[in-house]
Amino acid sequence: MSKFLSDDWASDVTAALNSHQGFKNAIGDADLGIQFTTTDAPDGEVAYYLKTGGGDATLALGTLDGADVTVNQGYDTASAISKGELNTQTAFMTGKLKVSGNLAKLMMHQGAIQQWGSAVSNLEVEY
């Protein structure tokens, strides 16, 4: 079991995304970078990113230079999305997620974002 927003969690998510056929099919060979910032986490603000390219995905703690999209969210929102209790569209529409950058590129890959939830649904995560 990995702690949410830890290096172990990021590694587990990376493995889950790269082994999930639905996510792999949806993202294809797309080159996409999403920077996430989660505020109010138990250990303070946490930055992490998703980078895809060449058919592979990487989720890692830290910042991604040249990210296509930036997502800002509070810990409660991030953990609810991770648990499958809140979907990203609802979070965005209700102002719980703030998204900036190339929104058109993000929308082009909405199928992969939806598959992300399915890919990580069996991970054991400590919140």
Describe the 3D structure:
The chain has 127 residues and is α/β, with parallel strands linked by helices. Helix content is 41%, strand content 29%. The chain has a single domain, classed as 2-Layer Sandwich (Nonspecific Lipid-transfer Protein, Chain A). The protein has helices spanning 7-19, 21-27, 75-83, 88-93, 103-108, 110-120; strands at 2-3, 32-39, 46-53, 56-61, 69-74, 97-101, 125-126. Strands 4-3-2-5-6 form a five-stranded mixed β-sheet. It has a two-stranded parallel ribbon with strand order 1-7.
Concise structural overview:
This protein has six helices and seven strands.
Key features?
Nonspecific Lipid-transfer Protein, Chain A, globular, 127 residues, 29% strand, alpha/beta, two-stranded parallel ribbon
CATH architecture descriptor name: 2-Layer Sandwich
SSE pattern: EHHEEEEHHEHHE
- Return residue spans where pLDDT drops below 50 for at least 5 consecutive residues: none
Q: End-to-end distance, in Å?
A: 10 Å
Instruction: Tell me, briefly, the overall form.
Output: globular
- Hey, roughly how much beta strand do the residues contain? 25-35%
Main sheet overview? 5 strands, mixed
CATH superfamily: SCP2 sterol-binding domain
Number of structurally distinct domains: 1
| Radius of gyration, CA atoms, in whole angstroms | 13 Å
Mean pLDDT: 95
Class derived from helix and strand content: alpha/beta
CATH class: Alpha Beta
| β-strand number | 7
Strand order of the largest sheet: 4-3-2-5-6
| Helix proportion | 40-55%
